[in-house]
Amino acid sequence: MPSLTRALMAALLAASTLTPAMATAAGPSARVRVDQVGYTTDQAKVAWLLAPRLEPGQVFHVERRDGTIAFTGTAGVSTGHWNGRYRAVQPLDFSDLQGPGEYRIVVPGEPPVHSPWFQVGSAWQLVDPLLGDVVSFFQAQRDGSDVIAGDLGRKPSHLNDSTAALYAWPTYPDPDSDAIDGDLSPLGGTTDLTGGWFDAGDFIKFSHTTAYADALLWAAQRELGAAAPQTLVPEARFGLD
Fold first, then answer.
1. Are the CB atoms for 106 and 118 separated by under 8 Å?
2. Alpha-carbon distance 21 to 236, whole Å?
3. How far is CA 80 from CA 46, 77, 112, 154, in A?
4. Lesser CB count within 10 Å: N end or C end of the chain?
5. For the purposes of burial, counting CB atoms within 10 Å of the CB of 66, is it exposed (0-12), middle (13-18) or buried (19 or more)?
C-alpha cells in the first residue's frame, strides 16, 4: 500500500475493534483486538490479547471460515496493562500468514475468545472501498455557506464568522490547558473565518490540523489518479480554500 494512502486511512478511520468472550465469575473476560481494515498479505500482522491477568505461553490460532486452522502461534510478552480490569496486553503476531482470505483469531479456553472476522489481501482490496467513506466524512464536517446536505440534512452554518473579531494571542497556565490567563485583548478589526471543516466533532477549527488532513487528501489523489473517488478532488479543494 502506498505509504501516504495508508497514513490517510490510519489518520481518519478507527482501525480496531474489541470482541468479548462470555463473562466469567472470576472477573472480566479476555478480548482480542484486531485491525478492522484488515492486513495486507506482506505486512507485519499483529493482534492484541487483552486479559485480566498474564497467561504465559498462551496459544492462539488463526482460523478460516470453514473452521480449518491457517496459523498457530504463542502470545508475546505483555506490554503492560490496559486498565484496572485488563492487566495484561499481549501481542499475537501472525505475520507469517500471507495467504489472502477471511480469518479470525481464536484463543482457546473456557470459554474460548474469538476476534471479529478480518480480511488479508492486497492494499487496494482493503483500502479502495473505504476511501469514499473517508471523503463523505469530510463532506459532513463542512462549515459555512458551502455545505453538502447529505444524510444529515446539513444547512449553512456559522455565517456570522465572516466578521470574526481579532484578538492578541492569549497566554495559558500550562501547555495542556484550555483555560487562558486573564482576559482576551482585542486588536481591532475583523476577519472572515467562514468555511473550513469542524475539528474533533465540535465547532473549533484549527489551521494546522486542516492543513495536515488536506495534504493527505491531495496525496491520496496523487497516488490513485483516475481510480480516486470523484468526490475527492472537490473536497480537497474545499479544504485548501
1. no
2. 42
3. 16, 9, 22, 44
4. C
5. exposed
**CB–CB of 92/75 below 8 Å?**
yes
- β-partners of residue 51 are 88
Pairing relationship of beta strands 46-51 and 39-40 according to DSSP bridges: unpaired
Residue 236 CB coordination number (10 Å): 22
220 CB burial (10 A radius; 0-12, 13-18, 19+): buried
Residue pointed to by grid coordinates 475539528: 199
Q: Which domain holds residue 82?
A: 15-121
In the chain, which residues have pLDDT < 70?
A: 1-27, 200-202
Residues 72, 163 share a domain: no
Q: Using CA atoms, how far apart are residues 130 and 30, in angstroms rounded to an integer? A: 29
Do residues 76 and 93 make contact, with C-beta atoms less than 8 angstroms apart?
Answer: yes
Q: Are residues 87 and 55 in the same domain?
A: yes
Residues 160-176 as b or e (16 or more Cβ within 10 Å = b): ebeeeeeeeeeeeeeee
CATH assignment of the domain containing 57: 2.60.40.10
What was the pLDDT predicted at 176? 87
User: If we measure between CA atoms, which residue out of 130, 193, 186 comes closest to residue 161?
Assistant: 193
Q: Are residues 196 and 110 in the same domain?
A: no
